[in-house]
Amino acid sequence: MLYELLISRFTQFQAAAIGMIVAYVITFISLNMRFSFLPQDQGRAFAVNGALSKGKLRGVGIVFVIDFILASILFLPLSFELIIYLGLLFLIMLSGYLDDASDKPWNEYKKGLIDFVISVATMATFLAHNDSTIQFLAFELKLPYPVYFILGVILIWVAINVTNCSDGVDGLCGSLVIVTVMSFAIMFSEPLGSMATAGQLFSAVLLAYLYFNCSPSSMLMGDAGSRALGFFIALIAMKSGHPFAYLMLSLVLIIDGGLGLLKISLIRFLKLHVMTNLRTPIHDHMRKNLEWSDTQVVIRFVILQIVISILFAAL
């Protein structure tokens, strides 16, 4: 395997750097090919500046996720556990792509059920290969397996959906995910092991995507990308042994995408009309109500998440 050849000749850091460069180049080239199977965005009637997306390539997450999977096979030590995770990542990406390519958007409950099934399969795999010991700040806790299973399913489902909802401004979702993933990779490099390198590879892939997605963008990741990114964040959070760190290291994603989910759920299931003066996702509130530009939203949100991550590292 290429990984074994590299690690025999280079340090772990050098091998990871080579992998990142290759992942970036492959993704940049493949995105430039603008495959004919990629759908075109029809614009979003209720989103701020949604009409500006009309005609752009959508669902390019299928391209960069496959590129990440190929880079992982080349530059990571393969294990049965990792192969299953890569397969599940492909499936969550594929479900998003099929929704992107569909003439009629998929029903929310259909997507929610798919997310739930993949979350359950992921937790079953995770607990078959890892124990249920977690770190919470300075405390070490061993959770009962059923408790960790339920909490893990919730974490994965939430991460998929809040990340998906945050994808509405050129460059925003990809930039925030890079900050979150690299925060985990830097802070928890030892417990993550090769998964920290996986985070670096995914970040390199996203950097290539952001070259085309910065404002004004020429292509959009779609559900194929955002749902896969949320899944990966949840996975790396659990593999770090610090799953509750997700709450801080993804706080901007959670607030941006999560408040909309909460608002809709309260209205739909409990008939509670709350946050009526708050436009969701929050990035739309900032653009419409506070008149922030797209660039201001991206830069300010990223700065906030970096500051939060630094504060968390100091705890």
Model description:
A hairpin with a 2-residue loop joins strand 1 (133-136) and strand 2 (139-142). Strands 1-2 form a two-stranded antiparallel ribbon. It has 14 helices and two strands; from the N terminus they run H-H-H-H-H-E-E-H-H-H-H-H-H-H-H-H. By secondary structure, the protein is mainly α. Helix 3 packs antiparallel against helix 9 (194-213), helix 5 (108-129) crosses helix 6 and helix 7 packs antiparallel against helix 9 (194-213). The model has no long low-confidence stretch (mean pLDDT 93).
The total beta strand count reads 2
Sheet with the most strands, sense and barrel status: 2 strands, antiparallel
**C-alpha termini separation:** 40 Å
Spatial order of the strands forming the largest sheet: 1-2
Quaternary state of the chains: single chain
Q: Please state the average pLDDT score.
A: 93
Strand content: under 5%
What structural class should be given to the helix and strand makeup? mainly alpha
Gyration radius from CA atoms, angstroms:
19 Å
Spell out the helices and strands N to C: HHHHHEEHHHHHHHHH
Parts with pLDDT < 50 across at least 5 consecutive residues = none
Overall 3D geometry? globular
Share of helical residues: 55-70%
Tally of DSSP helical segments: 14
